[in-house]
Design goal:
Length: 283
């Protein structure tokens, strides 16, 4: 039998304690680093348009640039950009650190899919793109299941994904919305119950390379920084937080030169007996 000396045990405990302290220091350090990075990102993102606003206004005051409607419009658009950035940042911080106030309502998956196709299809066509949609939702299953979602928030996610697809794909391209059930195992046998609804936004734009694929959901990430007027790189970070807040997952498949598919899932629940899943009130 081993006999431990008190000093051995004390020594081991001390080592463990030391290890814990180091670990805690490490995560504090990482937290501090990410806080610093955030502050510097925010200053940079706000600083760039502010410098340009200041430059324009100074030039107008000095009489170098005429304060005509065209130049004023340029300044105004920069102000809108700053405003959008501040709003998006506030939104993201509420989603990440606060209690996201989701207004959850019960809705059938096929009803949500129809709503989204109607809501976005016309918009996409109007912008000069081809629009396609496909619903692979077996209706008996759809009838017995519901989603618990904040439809406004899901529309916000869709809006972010679709406006990216429109922004990065050349006009005349095709945007496709696909809705399908995800089953617990690979094979969708009729007796199996799907666990989630997957919504896919497919474009045939430039695609996203592998290095960028790992980062697109990070805040402030933009693959092409030269497209400055096009947003601050917060859209996908916000979309991700909303999807996670609904208990879902968000992801991306892409092939350079072929296009990108952004998808997210929303968990499905069996409709309790005696309750109509068509009820959108959730009460
Ligand atoms: P933003 O569009 O404001 O730059 P997002 O967070 O919405 O920010 O997107 C982050 C980056 O991901 C974009 O800057 C772009 O590089 C890339 N991206 C997003 N969607 C697409 C898409 N459909 N096709 C190609 N690139 C995309």
């Amino acid at each position: 039998a081993k006999i431990f000396k008190i000093s051995d045990i004390q020594g081991r405990l001390l080592k463990e304690r030391e290890y814990e302290i180091n670990e805690a220091n490490g995560s504090l350090h990482r937290l501090e680093q990410s806080r610093r990075r955030l502050v510097s990102d925010i200053s940079h993102e706000l600083g760039t348009p502010m410098t340009s606003i200041q430059g324009y206004l100074r030039a107008m005051l000095d009489g170098i640039v005429a304060p005509d409607p065209e130049n004023l419009k340029m300044v105004y658009e920069k102000v809108l950009l700053v405003n959008q950035l501040v709003e998006d940042l506030f939104e993201l911080s509420k989603l990440e650190f606060g209690q996201p106030a989701f207004d959850l309502k019960r809705i059938q998956p096929d009803v949500l899919a129809d709503d989204l196709v109607r809501r976005f299809g016309a918009d996409i066509r109007q912008r000069g793109f081809r629009f396609e949609s496909s619903l692979a939702l077996p209706s008996p299953a759809a009838g017995a299941l519901f989603l618990s979602v904040d439809t406004m928030r899901i529309e916000q996610v869709m809006n972010n994904l679709i406006s990216n697809a429109l922004k990065y794909t050349a006009p005349g391209g095709t945007i496709r919305l696909c809705f399908r059930f995800i089953y617990p195992d690979e094979a969708p046998l009729p007796q199996k119950t799907p666990v989630s609804l997957q919504i896919r936004v497919v474009d045939n734009g430039p695609g996203i390379d592998e290095a960028a694929r790992a980062q697109v959901f990070d805040r402030f990430y933009r693959a092409d920084r030269s497209r400055q007027e096009e947003g601050a790189g917060l859209g996908l970070a916000i979309a991700k937080q909303i999807v996670i807040g609904h208990g879902g997952q968000i992801g991306l498949e892409s092939q350079l030169g072929k296009g990108s598919t952004f998808y997210f899932t929303l968990p499905l629940t069996a409709t309790p007996p005696g309750v109509s899943a068509y009820s959108q009130s959730g009460k």
